[in-house]
Amino acid sequence: MIWNIFKKDFAQLWPLALIVALMHLANAAIWFFLEPFGEPRGLITIAQVFSYLALLGSLVLIVLLVHQEVLPGVSQDWVIRPIRRRDLLLAKLLFLLAIVQSPMLLADVAHAIAAGFPFATALAAALSRNAFILLSLSLPVFAIAAVTKTLVHVAAALISIWLFVVLGIGLGILARGGGAPIFAANGIQWMTPAWWSLLACSTALLVIPVQYFRRSTHAARGMVAAAVLLAPLLSLAPWAQAFSVQQHLSPHPALSTPVTIAFDPALGRSAAEPNSRSRTVIFLPIRVTGLPPDSFLMNDRAEVRILSRDGVALYRGRTIAALGYHDDFPARTTAVKAVVTYQRIELPENIPARVLTNPVRVELVDSLTLFHLEAEDSIPALNADANSSAFGRCRTKLDDEADDIELGCEKPGAAPACTSTTLENPAQAVRGPETFACDPDYAPHPVHIVPDGVSQFGSHISLRDLREPKDMEKPPQLDGVRVILRSFQPAAHFTRRLVLPAIRLQDWAASQDPTPAHVR
Amino acid sequence: MMVQTKNLCKNFGRFGALRGLTLNVPEGSAFALLGANGAGKTTTIKVLMNLLQPTAGSAVVLGVDSRRISPRELAQIGYVSENQQMPEGMTVAAYIRYLRPFYATWDCALEAQMLRNLRLPVDRRIREMSHGMRMKMALACALPFRPRLLVLDEPLSGLDPLVRDEFMEGLKLQIGETTVLISSHELAEIEDITTHVAYIDQGEVLFQETKCGLTGRLREVRVTLDAEAHLPPQLPKHWLDVRASGNTLTFVDTQFSEADLASRVASVLGGVRTIAVQPVALRSIYTTLARAIRDRSLSL
Q1: Contact in structure between A111 and A453 (CB atoms under 8 Å)
Q2: Is the pLDDT score of B181 beyond 70?
Q3: CB contacts < 8 Å between A and B, how many?
Q4: Is residue B293 one of the residues assigned to a domain?
Q5: Nearest CA distance, A76 vs chain B (angstrom)
Q6: Tell me: the pLDDT tens digits for A233-270?
């Protein structure tokens, strides 16, 4: 009977199913034909909106599929027919996999194969994305449809859930005294959506059988409501606990063992930041040792506690107010040597002057991630179109102003967490600075969701460092010039505690000399 | 018994829709559930079909507890309800084609006959059909598998006389083969097929018996008196709907007995010239009982 139900649903829904399938294929085609340089912006934006519309189409199809046999209520004709609930559910799930999910999978595979990737790579990335969408989006929407009667009810329910979760997160932020959400803009930001996905998926796996086998709409709606109530709480986990989970997921925790962080006053004061005259921004000179070769360290979050000499807490908080991957503690190296850097501590403007002028005890707790080199490759700097296993298909071109090389790569699945690019002219033995581009995601299995199964990444590489000032007006000579690409993956997450028993913070405000002391 | 309920209760919040309802529907009967709006007829049927769970008591359908009705039982039960929600996007033909495989006993010849008799537009989508068409379609989907039990919940409600006739004609194709449990206010239409009657009020069965028994003991009595009729202060409790007009007095006797009718009437009224007795139609029985219940003067 499963096939009979499936055929009936298909006969009812094939026009929409066809439209949605074509949308997914068109989405893949659009992103195949768009060059991975992020331009033109307008077209990219339209293409991104279209990819969301394709996903939305799939979700509408799921709702209509479930609503072919509405579950709440006592007036539905199918309820008094000799239809086995198990058969009905299996038929719906078969439709979900075969008609809703498969076109996405096929489109992803087709895009990756057309871009020149092997079938196995294309399929693995497409399956990963497909499974994620199935578990975190399709099944939860299936469950919401199972406890509602119409598409309008589903839309209202989803909007209500979204509003409630946003409100809950907002109230949570207010309850903590303001500031950004704990997971915002850092590598462990995957955790909250992962918890939400897990919650949505597990709720769906409870709700769907309850509705199909018991038709207990009140109980099923209660489960959905409980999950919605729980969702904002999952975003309020304390940083220490969340990072502790991340530590346990470290792929190579032993790599962090030799890493030490020490206060090094010999480095002198930091140079002033451009456009900043703040007296409350402190730069503590830091020496990082024990980094393995070809690695760098990222400070995910630093928390500071300032106490008076007699132990009274004067200040406690994050070292920065702003969000961002790069603000806390960028200590990067690709060589085996100590790294010197500055720990930036941004104190409130209204902090009492005595905190800055008197000797105080400073305690710093850094949550750190060690990245190690995963792969290295090089491609011509001009008009390259090359495939590599680590970076996928990468292309280069000179930008319109002829002062940058544009690098665009596409790769089935998630993009590397961090990449660096360096321009090299072997003929003249000239090498530009290494430029990092990080969008760190410490998820154990990062998944790329939109716009399709192939991710795009890249960067602009300035030609300035390879050219003499006198040649800047001439067209660049890029024969033989190559772009060295390096990708880095998180290897270990760990914390380090730094205690300065007596320090006068005012002494470590930025120097007005723009040159760092250790360079001077 | 095809259907048996015992002390069946169903509460909606604090409201008791069924309050200890006990019902027995014999096999082969055409059992009419009578009662005012809100009496509990539809709730009873929904509990029997396992669309609602009883709060207390038991309901057994085809020998199975209603809460455990499985596709095996549903394959032997036809159900037509006035507010049945059919798949709107399907055509009549597509829906019937979809249903066929679910019923091992589906009779395609009977299906064709039903479609013909009911004059159903098989290529029209359900959402484009009138209420009457939908009810006929529900019947066309409920009979071709020759159900052992046919449950009809207000199937004639809102239908014009022609469609009612067509519906009843369709229904009569199956009468005798199947047990019918019908809740309807269109008593004139169902009177021909009804064999048993139960009267439900406020979630309880006031009485249930064969139609023959009921129409046998309920008679309309017309008494012509020597003088102008006046209602005596004390009337027998089993006289319902008593009316006086000129020297004529009419009432419905709920405990009619031919044997001593004259003496019983004479003992109450006196000066009786003639007594005429005639059977009461199901519709009149219902209205008489309903009026008596409303006026709290019922004695059965």
Answers
A1: yes
A2: yes
A3: 50
A4: no
A5: 5
A6: 888 778 888 899 999 999 999 999 999 989 988 888 87
> Is B138 in Cβ contact with A8 (below 8 Å)?
no
What letter represents residue A71's amino acid? L
Torsion of CA A369, A374, A379, A385, to 10 degrees: -100
Whether residue B129 lies within 8 A of chain A, CB to CB, comes out as no
Looking at the fold, whether B235 and B174 belong to one and the same domain comes out as: no
Bridge partners of B199, per DSSP, are B34, B207
Chain B interface mutation, best of A81, A149, A212, highest count of B Cβ atoms under 10 Å? A81
The separation between CA B10 and the C-alpha centre of its own chain, rounded to angstroms, equals 20
Q: How many domains does chain B have?
A: 2
Do B67 and B192 belong together in one domain? Answer: yes
Judged against a pLDDT cut of 50, whether residue A509 lies above it is answered with: yes
pLDDT, position A325: 40
Number of domains in chain A: 2
Nearest residue to A91 (alpha-carbon basis) of A181, A4, A175, A205: A4
Place of tokens 């909007």: A159
pLDDT one-digit tens code per residue, B227-244: 887 777 788 888 888 888
The beta-carbon neighbor of A82 closest among B75, B85, B89 is B75
Characterise A464 by phi-psi region: left (phi > 0), alpha (psi -120 to 50), beta (else). Answer: alpha
Q: CA B164 to CA B169: how far, in whole Å?
A: 8
- Chain B nearest-CA distance from A489, in A, is 53
Whole-number pLDDT of residue A511 = 63
In whole angstroms, give the CA distance from residue A148 to residue A171.
Answer: 28
Q: Can you say whether the dihedral through the CA atoms of B107, B176, B193, B152 is positive or negative?
A: negative
Indicate yes or no: CB of A82 within 8 angstroms of CB of B83.
no
Structure letter (DSSP) for residue A272: P
Mean pLDDT over A302-309 rounds to 89
How much is the ipTM here? 0.86
Residue A183 lies in a domain: yes
Residues A233 and A380 in one domain: no
B62's tokens: 């085809």
**pLDDT for A322 beyond 50:** no
Residues B116 and B251 in one domain: no
Residue A4: which of B74, B83, B98 has the nearest Cβ? B98
Residue B160: how many other CB atoms lie within 10 Å = 11
B300 contact A CB<8A: no
* Angle subtended by helix axes B131-142 and B92-99, to nearest 10: 20
Flag whether pLDDT at B256 surpasses 60: yes
Q: Is B275 on the interface with A (CB under 8 A)?
A: no
CB contact (8 A) between residue A8 and residue B98: yes
Residue A174 is part of which domain span? Answer: 2-237
CA dist list (Å): B81 to B35, B75, B151:
16, 17, 8
* Token reading at A433: 């600075």
Instruction: Determine, yes or no, domain membership for A74.
Output: yes
- For residue B85, the chain A residue with the least C-alpha distance is A76
User: Is A274 a residue whose pLDDT tops 70?
Assistant: no
Give the tens place of pLDDT for each residue, A444-503: 888 888 888 898 888 888 877 666 656 656 666 777 888 999 998 999 999 999 999 999
Cβ–Cβ below 8 Å for B90 and A8: yes
Q: What is the pLDDT of residue A513?
A: 57
Instruction: With CB atoms and an 8 Å threshold, state whether A75 touches B83.
Output: yes
Q: How many CA atoms lie within 13 A of B253 on its CB side?
A: 23
In tens, the pLDDT along A195-218 reads: 999 999 999 999 999 999 988 999
Which range of residues forms the domain containing residue B77? 3-214
Q: Compare all CA atoms of chain A with the CA of B86 and give the residue at the minimum distance.
A: A77
* B174 in Cβ contact with B138 (< 8 Å): no
